[in-house]
Amino acid sequence: MFSHIFIGTRDFGRALAFYRPLLAGLGIAERFCEPERPWAGWQSTPGPRPLLLLGAPFEGEHAPGNGQMVALLAASRAQVNDAHATALAHGGRCEGPPGLRPHYHQDYYGAYFRDPDGNKLCVACHEPPAG
């Protein structure tokens, strides 16, 4: 369905320091990084698309959209917990701690946060608890 998702930033270095550990913890491989441009991309498995792209907006301005959110898939509830902790440790702001959200469905376990630029993200697991 998606070719790519682009997340804009005002400070590429700060944003890269936030997204690299977050996406690595979710097992999402970095495909490229061109700081001089500035932009970076992470690739889905088995690839090559969709891509998650991070960079300076083409128009040179950045304003996070109201109601826009990127949701990243986690393989387990523990991975959701770890991703949320990683986000907060790298300058993110909590928008909803890890936990069940049964109003979506009985096994929806998610966490919500904003990156240092104010972009809203979610990490969600749709699987029942391991055990």
Task: Give the topology, please.
Layout lengths: L3 E5 L3 H14 L3 E6 L4 E5 L7 E5 L13 E5 L3 H13 L3 E8 L8 E6 L5 E6 L6
Parallel strand pairs: 1-4, 5-8
Antiparallel strand pairs: 2-3, 3-4, 6-7, 7-8
Helix pairs in contact: 1-2
Structure notes:
- This protein has 131 residues and is α/β, with parallel strands linked by helices.
- It has a single domain, classed as Roll (2,3-Dihydroxybiphenyl 1,2-Dioxygenase, domain 1), CATH 3.10.180.
- The chain has two helices and eight strands.
- It has helices spanning 12-25, 77-89, and strands at residues 4-8, 29-34, 39-43, 51-55, 69-73, 93-100, 109-114, 120-125.
- The strands form two sheets. It has a four-stranded mixed beta sheet, covered by helices on one side.
- The protein is globular and about 45 Å long.
Name some characteristics of this structure.
131 residues; 2 helices; four-stranded mixed beta sheet; alpha/beta; globular; VOC family protein; Glyas_Bleomycin-R_OHBP_Dase; Glyas_Fos-R_dOase_dom; 2,3-Dihydroxybiphenyl 1,2-Dioxygenase, domain 1; VOC_core; single chain
* Strand neighbour order, sheet with most strands: 1-4-3-2
Q: Estimate the global geometry from the Cα principal axes.
A: globular
Report the sheet with the most strands, covering strand number, pairing sense and barrel closure.
Answer: 4 strands, mixed
Encode the helix/strand succession as letters.
EHEEEEHEEE
Distance between the termini: 32 Å
- What is the name of the CATH topology? 2,3-Dihydroxybiphenyl 1,2-Dioxygenase, domain 1
CATH architecture verdict: Roll
User: How many helices in DSSP terms?
Assistant: 2
Question: What portion of residues belong to β-strands?
Answer: 35-45%
List how many beta strands DSSP finds.
Answer: 8
The percentage helix is: 10-25%
Arithmetic mean of pLDDT: 92
Protein name: VOC family protein
InterPro entries: Glyas_Bleomycin-R_OHBP_Dase, Glyas_Fos-R_dOase_dom, VOC_core
Pfam family, one: Glyoxalase
Domain VOC: 1-126
